[in-house]
Amino acid sequence: MKVPALVLTLFFTSALACNHKIIARREGNASLPFTYTPGNDPPADPATISYFVNHVGINVANITRTSEWYSKVIGMRHVFAVDLEGGFSIMYMAHSQGGRNGTGFQSGAEMQRDKNNMAGMVEFQSYTGSGSGNSTGYETPFPRAILSHFGLIVPDIEAAQARFDSLGVRTIKRTGEMDFTRQTAESQVLGKAWGFADLSNEETQKDVAKAAPGLEAIGFRSFIVIADPDGNLLEVQQQSGAAI
């Protein structure tokens, strides 16, 4: 029986985590089948004080099915959901933040209150409108572009934008902008990441137009979206004052 590569990777990573002290003692031993490099970074840039990864956004086919699975299987709790016009939905789920799951219960209202001060959340996005071409759900176990973005919280969105510019960071969406048209390469990247895979589809464009007022209302225009060197996206929100 073949063991899936992912299982082997997780097993090996877990083994490393459990045996890091042993590995450290054997550091430099030529008999090791890998190179071990312990972390030794200098202090972070002071400009990044209060930055933290808040959530990971992924695209899913069915919000209800997803909510039931993540609740039943891994104990995540529904923080909130927003159903926009045009068949676009957003849902946040998280574990209670008072401690490891089950040791510090929080009500839904408390989790909503603390949303931009929490880490480890998952944002689920689902587009099932006329232009999705996928009314029955994904047909493959690993849908294309399932990872939408990482959510980063910063204390000052304008200062963060200026800093990203100074560092030459590729910005997909600047704060104050919101473009899901098909006119630029950046808007196409943004559209695909948010589940609108085919912006050339006229039905998709109609649904985007329907969803736009809702996206405005939840504060999306104020967000920044940047890309890392491999094209993975980070949605940047301000720590306080953001609706979601």
TrEMBL record:
The name this protein goes by in its record: VOC domain-containing protein
Superkingdom field: Eukaryota
Xref: PROSITE patterns: PROKAR_LIPOPROTEIN, VOC
Domain VOC: 52-239
Key words, A-Z: Signal
Source organism of this protein record: Paraconiothyrium brasiliense
Keyword Amino-acid biosynthesis in annotation: no
Leader sequence residues: 1-17
One Pfam family recorded for the sequence: Glyoxalase
Statement: the UniProt record of this protein carries the keyword Electron transport: no
Upper taxonomic lineage: Eukaryota, Fungi, Dikarya, Ascomycota, Pezizomycotina
